[in-house]
Amino acid sequence: MNKFYSFTSFSSTLNQVYSLQKRRATGLLLGSLFLATMLQAQVNVTATGGTLNASYGTLSAAVTAINGGIHTGTITVDVPAGHTEALTARINLTATGSMANPITIQKSGAGANPLLTAYAGANLPTSAERDGMFSLSGSDWVTIDGIDLQENAGNADATTQMEYGYGLFKNSDIDGCQNNTIKNCVVTLNRNNTATWTGTGYIGSVGIMVNNSTATDNTAITVTAPSGSNSFNKFYSNTIQNCNAGIAFDGYAAATPF
Q1: Shared-domain flag, residues 34 and 140
Q2: Using CA atoms, how far apart are residues 155 and 204, in angstroms rounded to an integer?
Q3: Dihedral, 214, 218, 219, 220 alpha carbons, nearest 10
Q4: What pLDDT, on the 0 to 100 scale, is given for residue 86?
């Protein structure tokens, strides 16, 4: 006997199967995206004092926590390979390490270096404060290893463009940046930024700037103690490109108190 099947019933069954498979696929996709987001977010901080372990969504948030004294002692910041971060302001490290308790900010795992993209600047090279991406203010014994910096393609004029990628600045006449290391980083700015800095500084965009001023005031500092110099800093295996200058130093021009 021949059997006859209703096309309407068959079509309805197919639609139910398709709908079920679609929901499963959507659930898997959302789960994968959620997992990828969670993995992307993990900037991990370990320390020997204060809060010993914590995770942050951005490197900027991790540095803010370190500045606030949440983590102390020997501090290691692991930024996962492939991490990307669009800055909303300059990262400014004010915490300091020591020979016994250094601060290390480094790429973790195999893959592309973490990449920080610049915010939209608000200052000119002639302003008291120059726009930069990552500054150390009187910090000592800090190592930055494999953290790339990149100008924002939307920053199209001297106001919005960065004056520096990494900047080492003084905190006072007795507190300079000493014994810091920046290595294995790629810094990409905009070489069309060519205006001369007012006060202390250099000319246009500089990949790494070591300056005799604070990060927010272009007035030259009169150093009164050896600890007020920017000394013993090291820069290894960095690629600095599309900048008006690679690495620039502006120091205190006197024979004493060194």
Answers
A1: no
A2: 14
A3: 70
A4: 98
Q: What is the DSSP letter of 94?
A: -
Quick count: other Cβ atoms within 10 Å of Cβ 227?
17
Q: Within a domain: residue 258?
A: no
pLDDT (tens digit per residue) in 197-241: 999 999 999 999 999 999 999 999 999 999 999 999 999 999 999
Domain that holds residue 134: 43-250
SS3 198: coil
> Left (φ > 0), alpha (ψ -120 to 50) or beta: where does 68 sit?
alpha
3 and 53 belong to one structural domain: no
Same domain, residue pair 168 and 49: yes
Using an 8 Å Cβ cutoff, are 119 and 152 in contact? yes
Q: Which of 178, 181, 168, 182 is nearest to 226 (CA)?
A: 178
Residue 181 has a CB neighbour count (10 Å cut-off) of 16
- Mean pLDDT in residue range 23-33: 48
**Taking all residues of the chain, what is their mean pLDDT, rounded to a whole number?**
88
pLDDT in tens, 153-180: 999 999 999 999 999 999 999 999 999 9
Higher pLDDT pick, 179 / 1: 179
If one counts the domains in the chain, the total is: 2
Q: Is 203 exposed, middle or buried (0-12, 13-18, 19+ CB in 10 A)?
A: middle
Rounded distance between C-alpha atoms, residue 90 and residue 62, angstroms: 13
Listing DSSP states for 28-41 in one string gives: HHHHHHHHHHHHHH
